[in-house]
Specification:
The complex is a heterodimer of chains A (about 80) and B (about 700). With about 80 residues, chain A is mainly β. Chain A has helices at about 25-30, 65-70; strands at about 5, 15-20, 40-45, 55, 60-65, 75. Chain A has one domain (about 5-75): SH3 type barrels (Roll). In chain A, strands 1-6-2-3-4-5 form a 6-stranded antiparallel beta sheet. Classes of the chains: A mainly beta (about 80), B alpha/beta (about 700).
Amino acid sequence: MSATNLSALQPGARARVKDLPKSGTTFIRLREMGLLTGTVVTFVRAAPMGDPLEFKLRGYLLSVRRAEAQQIEVELLTDGAA
Amino acid sequence: MQLPAHINPPAPKRNAAPARAPVYALVGNPNCGKSTLFNALTGLKQKVGNYPGVTVEKKVGTAYSQHGQPLTVIDLPGAYSLAARSPDEAVTRDVLLGRRSDTAQPDRILCIVDATNLERNLYLVHQVLDLGRPVIVVLNMMDLAAEAGMAVFPDKLAQELGVPVIPCEAVRGKGLIELRLAMSRADLPLSRHAWDVPGAIAPAVAEIQASLVAHDAKSPLIARAESLLLLTDQDSVRVAGSTPLSARTTEILAGWQKRWSAENMDWAGTLVSSRYDAIGRIAAEVVQPGTAGQGPSPSDRIDAVVTHPIWGWITLGAVMCLIFVSIFTLAEYPMNWIDRHIAALADWVKGSMAPGDLRDLITDGAISGVGGVVIFLPQILILFFFIGLLESTGYMARAAFIMDRLMSRVGLNGKSFIPLLSSYACAIPGIMATRTIEDPKDRLVTILVAPLMSCSARLPVYLLMIAALLPAERVPLTTKVGIMFLMYFLGTFAAFGFAWLFKRTLLKGVPPMMIMELPPYRMPGVKDVGLHMLERAWIFLRRAGTVILGISIVLWFLSAYPKAPAGASPSEQLSGSFAGMAGHALEPVIKPLGFDWQIGIGLISSFAAREVFVSTMGVVFNAEADDGDTAPLRSALLKARWPDGRMLFTPLVCFGLMIFYVFAMQCISTIAIVKRETNSWKWPLFQTAYMTGTAWILALLVYQVGRGLGF
């Protein structure tokens, strides 16, 4: 398991959220949408121009800009699920 | 945990059947099928308006219980959380908390949730349960959950939450009878779900609640819900909204926040997490996930193409082409039909009334003025239809996803793309489509620049000016197309330029968040899209229609009075009229642009709608302008002279006029709609001033620099 941030995943990679900023409207809203410490997130793809990024979590798809994703620390899950 | 005694309602409300028919509020996340359920419950018995003071749509409908008793249903805007982040969500929160004086606090709440995405959907339900009102949970999209291989057990959810849970497929009308039966019950139970507020936060919740009761005159249950929201959002001013907090409560809240910050405690995160923990335990009982490691869903397969780095652009381009080709080809037939019938109506009035001012007022003022706007209705309807289709299929979010990067260069986000694009056909549907933009400043900037996109009403003006500029025989078609393209480019460039400017100066704000759900693709409900289209069109007709009627009559009066002596030609009548005088009065202002008073009359008359310029020029220069054939008018224009014999419509003036029409806000309908959508006269007036000001400056530059260069 290696630590990285949410913007640095390969498409199809799964990761578990370790930490996200405590304040800021965006990060509280992300929590309210189910992106919490411990949540497992799959990186699906980047938009055609590289930003924003699309993630799958709790069975739905969420688009987040790279600038925010960079601030979310995750650990890569290497359970082979692509 | 047992709730403290003082926040429990005094007596169980099980038998408290309200004397009047209960008012239901319908709440749910965006994209969970809320509108479909609302339409299915209320049919055409809906009233659509605005919440006073904000531009959020208010939809109220009447449903009937199984016993035929009418029930009021308020369709609240889609929300992910009661800790509101957008004007839409703020309305949902305020209505549920009973803060809006224009909308009574609902007696009962219908929570619609998407069964395929239960955890995130239950977050809002969990907050709604805090309100202590009877709740019915509608478990929608049971069919899609089954297709995805999930097993969802409504009974278990009902057992966990202690409220009725109705499985439903709103698109097919399944589950509606059961829902109506539940809604007819006089004795809806209150939720038994007790949720443990984390121990570190519970004392703060209790203290803030007590202060809200003591100092802000809130009822204990509402106070508890508000206190939880205050601790979730961190921005107490935003949570309090229209009901500012008392000094004492603010002080208590700030005290806790300060203390926790010093301890480096993440109170909001803890609160949200503990809700999700409670929800996770419920979901584990209610949902059996599909076979793990399943292949991509149909939605995933569509997305692989639609958001592909190459195919994504091709798809987006193809969808946009389809929309525009449809607008310009399909709309032609009904537009011709409307044109013919308006002409026939005017002829009929002419034939059946005695000649006189009243007859002219009706035919030349009211009928032709309103007709000139109604003729755009087919285009507007088709555009609304496509916007509705894009929204209900889920493609709208993909277009925003693809375009976000480009739009972010000028400080907007991807959601501004469709409204701006729609404005190429007509700014009105574009401006009305900005309601999907959550950030109020982004939305306002999009509204302000949308009319710069060259709409179809500018086409007749461009075509006439190109014809006058370049005699058909000598100039290759590509040059004409090139000039046309240049006009579209100028408008688009200006729209983005002004958006950039406004985002940096006038409407500076925090960079908007771009957290967007990409909902699964769904087959659109024909009824929903149709209703959406008719609703928008009706708003347009009502809003624009009344303003246009008034303006048309004023413009008619200006051109019909004072009366010229008998036997005068229409051109002489017009030049002697108030409009003619206004043209003369305007001449000093527009002379530096190379425009004379006759063009001035055209500018004034086309203030109502741009294409009127062409017909006014026809009257001013005594040329019968036939539909589609500008040749007679063109030669009349080319013969026009200044009093000193100089040619009036030089290529430079024609070009300057086109530039003027690219930028000038010459459209009363748009002004009326911007007034409605911004809820004030300030913004439409500012918009008119900046657009027409830019038009004047650029036309001046073109003429003066052009002359300096010897054109």
